[in-house]
Design goal:
- The protein is mainly alpha-helical and 107 residues long.
- The chain has a single domain, classed as Arc Repressor Mutant, subunit A.
- 49% of the residues lie in helices and 6% in strands.
- It contains five helices and two strands.
- A two-stranded antiparallel ribbon has the order 1-2.
- Strand 1 and strand 2 form a beta hairpin.
- The longest helix has 17 residues.
Length: 107
């Protein structure tokens, strides 16, 4: 089992203990994926964390896309925009950066 800044991660890079999450860990995960986190990334990461806190589940991509469209507008609530931020998948990579478990339905 690997670790990022002292936090244990599973073989896919998801935190083992969700309580270990920090902005620094998210930044390191992004750096490891050659992604530079912008304000737009943080909008989605914070949305994912709020969603998880409310529903206790990481949203699947379709649910995520619809929920973001509802909150942030159709220009951000679409697959093209979300994949431009998270090229390895807005659900999987976004949730990993947000310190959440892998969404159900993600391979």
């Amino acid at each position: 089992m690997a670790d990022i800044l002292g936090a244990k991660v599973d073989e896919e890079g998801f935190l083992v203990d969700l309580g270990d999450w920090s902005k620094e860990i998210a930044e390191q995960m992004a750096k490891d994926d050659d992604v530079s986190l912008s304000e737009e990334h943080w909008d989605v990461i914070n949305f994912l964390r709020e969603y998880f806190e409310e529903y206790q589940i990481a949203p699947a991509v379709r649910v995520l896309t619809k929920a973001i469209a509802k909150r942030m507008g159709k220009d951000k609530g679409n697959s093209k925009y979300l994949y431009s931020l998270f090229p390895y998948g807005p659900g999987k990579q976004g949730c990993r950066f947000a310190g959440l478990p892998k969404p159900t339905g993600c391979i």
